[in-house]
Structure formats: structure tokens, C-alpha cells
UniProtKB/TrEMBL annotation, chain A:
Keywords: Cell inner membrane, Cell membrane, Membrane, Transmembrane, Transmembrane helix, Transport. Its main location: membrane. Belongs to the binding-protein-dependent transport system permease family. Gene3D superfamilies: MetI-like. InterPro entries: MetI-like (IPR000515), MetI-like_sf (IPR035906). This is ABC transporter permease subunit.
UniProtKB/TrEMBL annotation, chain B:
Its main location: membrane. Keywords: Cell membrane, Membrane, Transmembrane, Transmembrane helix, Transport. CDD domains: TM_PBP2. This is 2-aminoethylphosphonate ABC transporter permease subunit.
Length: 265, 290
């Protein structure tokens, strides 16, 4: 306890919430409320309505949501597969090789996402690999961007893993593939699901690289939100943002349920 | 059953071969395109290969303003995040209150959302027809509210401080949880007041996490695009914004690649510094990368 006087503690807490609430709680609260309002230029919103959501059921929004969900699902599964494989492969290497693989897989975090988008445009706009204008290029960009996070969490989990399990399995005559499949991967399952959730959430909200790449028939939700706010439809944008946040949270919640089940097994 | 035989090292493919397929995949979709960006930046549209693209772009005022904007907004945001994050984490860790745990969980959720949502929310609060200006015009009867900074660098700064502060708080909270409270009690019983305890006991312990969190936030601010795109500010051009506008709006790929190379160099250099700081910092700082 740093502050001993009762009055002092209250003063600190009041300052804390005076900073915390407007900075962190207000943004999401404002978006939530605005999505139900018809106008808001005063202390309180006016004209509460479900109209913005009804609007969303028509038009392009359902397709945008589906696009985002498919993109995030495919990208995070691919990232999980590649990241896990790379982390397992790197673990088997000597220290030097492991550091090289580490650096290579963490590099996409350092490079600006816009530049990742640009690089894919430059590389895949001409044959033999003509991906520009397809959904594949968007999914590829998302995979590149989130693989680093999958790699990082699986690699961190591998260093925490007790080597006694695989050693005893191997000493009982289990083949390496059997050890991997029946011992290592089940032990890694909690970290794998956590990584999957993180990758999914990041991909759902990805805007920078997507803005560089999206073809007209594959427009993810963040781009739709930008389109709405850019043409001044702020309240529609807010409703779309709520849809984005809700679907992300729903998937994160489902993933954490799987994770709990996995860790109780 | 030969159950007692210890597993001998199996003959087969060498170990490094297992790491090859994912690295090859990364090479195809990331390293090869990056190399092409560098190649494109020295290949002007007029043909041939030279550094003339760099000369033109680096000398243009548009690029210089963008570079200056990027650096000072990122540096300012980082300082803001460090100060705010340190203060908030200090209270959560050392002046605990009921519900503090729930708050740290809330911060985790915060990190799962995209950055541009902050700008969208700020548009409702500080926009020209937003809440603050609305209250002002309602109470004073003026035609316009006084608040109009969202389209300036200050709006970007506010949004970035809001969004990136949790990235500083997480490693800090991890570091704070490892500080022995007996140390603080001892300092307090020897007559040290709270500011002095913070300065002489807590701050030295937190420095590695502050450095790690700060450099991570600096890199992410340099690379930030969504927040700036959503402010719709024509006056605030940063390097990622310049890459986007050159490539997509102007169709000038060699120019965009030149800016991209500068941006990559800046960010990767700082990110390398971050990894070095992270590797040096012990204990709590190690979790900063999450």
C-alpha cells in the first residue's frame, strides 16, 4: 500500500477514474450509444432507434460481415498452422538457427501493414502469380500479418513446456510423430487456442493492408466502416462498428470456452 | 515387446529441413515481396535502375513534412502513453481497489479491438457536431463550438495515446507484481513519502518494462494508419499515409516504394532496438512482447 491516509487514497482513486473512464471506457460506450441514435449534438443522444441496424440487414453489410469472418477464419487457421510448424521447427534447431527463424517470423510486426499491402501488390500484380483483384490476396496479407503473433505465442509456450513428458514418451518407444501428435500438441492446446483467438481478432480489425488490396467483391467490415464514416454516415458507421466488436467478442468467448474445456481435460 | 529399448536417434531427414517449409512460405509471401519493393524503389518508371527516385522523393516537401509529422506524433504519443500508463498502472498495482482485476481484464479486451474505433468515437465526442461542441452551443448560444482539433496532429496524438497506453500498462503491471511489497513498506517506515518511494524504489524496477513498452509503442505509432485515415485530415500526412496515397490515389508505385523503404528502415531499426531491450530486461519485461 503506497498511500496510507484514507483521504489520500480516495484522492488517488478519483484522479485515476477521472483519467481512466474518459480515456478507455468512453470510446466504446459512445460508439454503442451512437449506434442507436439518430443525432447526437448535445450532452445526450436523441431519437433512439433501431433503424441503423435495420438498414444494415439490407445492402452490402451482411456480405461485408461474412467476408470479414471468412477472411479472419482462413487467415488465423493458416497462421496457426504455419506459426506452429515454424515454432516446432525452430525449437529443433541450434541456437543460431533458432534466432534466425525468430527474427524472420517477427519481422512482419516491425514492417508497417500498409507496406505489407504494397509489397503484395507489387509482387502479385503480374503473372505467373496474378493474385491482384482476388480474395486470395487479402487473405494472404492477413495471414502474413497475424502469423507473427501465432508464432510468438506458440514459441513462448514451447519454452515453458516440461521436456519430461516427451522424453518419457520417447523412452517408452513412441515415434517422434506420435510424441508430437499425442503429447506435445495436446499440451500446447491452450496456447494454440489463445493464439487462434488473438489472430482472429487482429484479422477482423485489420484495415491498413486491406485498404491497399481489397477488390470490389471482397470488402471486409473495417473498410465498410471507413466507407460509411467517410461519406458522413457516422451513425451507420457506429452500428457497423458494434457489429464488428460483437462478432469479435463472440468468437473470442467461444474460443476461451474451448480453451477451458481443453485445460480441464 | 521391446518396450525397454530407448528410442535411438532416428535416421531420416535432417532437423533443419523441418523448419524449411514454413520459412519458404514466409519467403514467398513476405520476404520476396519486400525485396521487390526495394527493387521497385530503384527502378523509376522512365526505365533503368538508379537512385533518382530517392533524390526526387527525399527532396520533396511532401515527404519531409510527412517524415517530420510521423516522428513527432509517434514520439509525442509514446511519451504520453508512458506517462499515462505508468500513472494508471501504479494505482492499479499499489493503491488497489475492488474491481482492479476486472479493469486489467478490460484492458486485455481493449487490445483486441482495431485502433480506428477510437477515432470513430472521438468524432462523436469532439467532432464539429459532437457532444462537447453541442454542449457549448447549447449553453452559450454560439453558432460553433470551440473544439476543433480532430483534423490536426493533436487529434491523432490523442487517439494514439488512448489506443496504445494499454500496451505500456500490461508489461508494467507484470513488472509491478514482482516488486516485493516489503521493500515499499520498509521505505515507508523509514519515513519516505509516496513520491520518493515511486522515484527511488518502484521506478528503477519498472525501467526495463518502461523501455520495452515504450519502444514497442513507438514502432506501432510509426506504423499506424487506421487512426490517421479515419481522422480524414488532409493536413496530417504520415509516412504510411503517404505510401497509401502515392500507390492507391496517384498510382505512383516507384515513389510509394521509396517512401516504404524509408518507413521500413525506420521501423525495423527501432524494432530491433526493442528486441534488444527486451532481451536485456529481466523478468517482468519479458512478457512485454505479448
Amino acid at each position: 500500500m503506497l498511500v496510507h491516509s484514507r483521504g489520500g487514497r480516495w484522492a488517488v482513486w478519483i484522479v485515476f477514474f477521472a483519467l481512466f473512464l474518459p480515456v478507455f471506457a468512453l470510446p466504446f460506450l459512445v460508439i454503442m450509444v451512437a449506434s442507436f441514435a439518430t443525432s447526437w449534438s448535445g450532452a445526450f443522444p436523441s431519437g433512439m432507434t433501431l433503424g441503423h441496424y435495420q438498414e444494415l440487414t439490407k445492402g452490402d453489410s451482411p456480405h461485408a460481415l461474412l467476408t470479414s469472418l471468412v477472411t479472419a477464419l482462413v487467415a488465423s487457421l493458416a497462421a496457426l498452422a504455419i506459426g506452429t510448424w515454424a515454432a516446432l521447427g525452430a525449437e529443433a534447431l541450434r541456437r543460431r538457427g533458432r534466432r534466425v527463424v525468430d527474427a524472420l517470423f517477427m519481422l512482419p510486426v516491425a514492417v508497417p501493414s500498409v507496406v505489407v499491402g504494397l509489397s503484395l501488390l507489387v509482387a502479385f500484380s503480374k503473372p505467373p502469380l496474378l493474385l491482384n483483384g482476388t480474395s486470395t490476396i487479402v487473405i494472404t496479407a492477413h495471414t502474413v500479418l497475424v502469423t507473427a503473433f501465432a508464432y510468438q505465442s506458440v514459441a513462448a509456450a514451447l519454452t515453458r513446456l516440461d521436456p519430461a513428458y516427451e522424453q518419457s514418451a520417447a523412452s517408452l518407444g513412441a515415434r517422434p510423430s506420435y510424441v508430437l501428435w499425442r503429447v506435445k500438441l495436446p499440451l500446447l492446446l491452450p496456447s494454440l487456442t489463445a493464439a487462434a483467438g488473438l489472430c482472429f481478432a487482429l484479422s477482423m480489425g485489420e484495415l491498413s493492408a486491406t485498404m491497399m488490396l481489397y477488390p470490389p467483391n471482397w470488402v471486409p467490415l473495417p473498410v465498410t466502416i471507413f466507407g460509411a464514416t467517410d461519406r458522413g454516415a457516422l451513425f451507420t458507421g457506429a452500428a457497423l462498428a458494434v457489429v464488428l466488436m460483437a462478432s469479435t467478442l463472440l468468437v473470442l468467448f467461444a474460443v476461451s470456452r474451448i480453451r477451458n474445456r481443453a485445460s480441464y481435460r | 515387446m521391446a518396450s525397454v529399448t530407448l528410442a535411438a536417434p532416428r535416421r531420416g531427414v535432417p532437423r533443419w529441413l523441418w523448419a524449411l517449409p514454413p520459412v519458404a512460405g514466409l519467403g514467398l509471401v513476405f520476404l520476396y515481396p519486400m525485396a521487390l519493393v526495394v527493387w521497385q524503389s530503384v527502378s523509376p518508371d522512365s526505365g533503368g535502375h538508379d537512385l533518382s527516385g530517392y533524390g526526387t522523393v527525399l527532396a520533396s516537401t511532401g515527404f519531409q513534412t510527412a517524415l517530420l509529422n510521423t516522428v513527432w506524433i509517434a514520439a509525442g504519443s509514446t511519451v504520453g502513453c508512458l506517462v499515462l500508463g505508468f500513472a494508471l498502472a501504479l494505482v492499479i498495482a499499489f493503491v488497489p481497489f475492488p474491481g482492479g482485476k476486472a479493469l486489467s481484464r478490460f484492458i486485455d479486451i481493449f487490445l483486441a479491438f482495431p485502433s480506428f474505433l477510437i477515432t470513430l468515437a472521438l468524432l462523436f465526442v469532439y467532432g464539429t457536431v459532437g457532444i462537447v461542441n453541442g454542449i457549448w452551443t447549447d449553453t452559450t448560444g454560439a453558432a460553433h463550438g470551440p473544439v476543433d482539433f480532430l483534423h490536426t496532429p493533436w487529434g491523432v496524438l490523442l487517439a494514439e495515446v488512448t489506443y496504445f497506453t494499454p500496451f505500456v500498462m500490461r508489461p508494467l503491471l507484470a513488472a509491478f507484481s514482482q516488486i516485493d511489497t516489503a521493500q515499499i513498506e520498509a521505505a515507508a517506515s523509514l519515513g519516505a513519502r509516496a513520491p520518493r518511494i515511486v522515484r527511488q524504489v518502484i521506478l528503477p524496477e519498472a525501467l526495463p518494462s518502461l523501455a520495452a513498452g515504450g519502444s514497442l509503442v513507438l514502432v506501432m505509432c510509426l506504423n499506424e494508419f487506421g487512426i490517421i485515415l479515419f481522422t480524414g485530415a488532409k493536413g496530417v500526412t504520415t509516412l504510411p499515409m503517404l505510401v497509401y496515397s502515392k500507390a492507391i490515389l496517384d498510382g505512383d508505385y516507384p515513389g510509394a516504394c521509396v517512401v516504404a523503404v524509408v518507413n521500413i528502415a525506420l521501423s525495423v531499426a527501432l524494432y530491433t532496438l526493442y528486441r534488444v531491450v527486451l532481451a536485456r530486461g529481466a523478468g517482468g519485461a519479458r512478457r512485454a512482447g505479448a
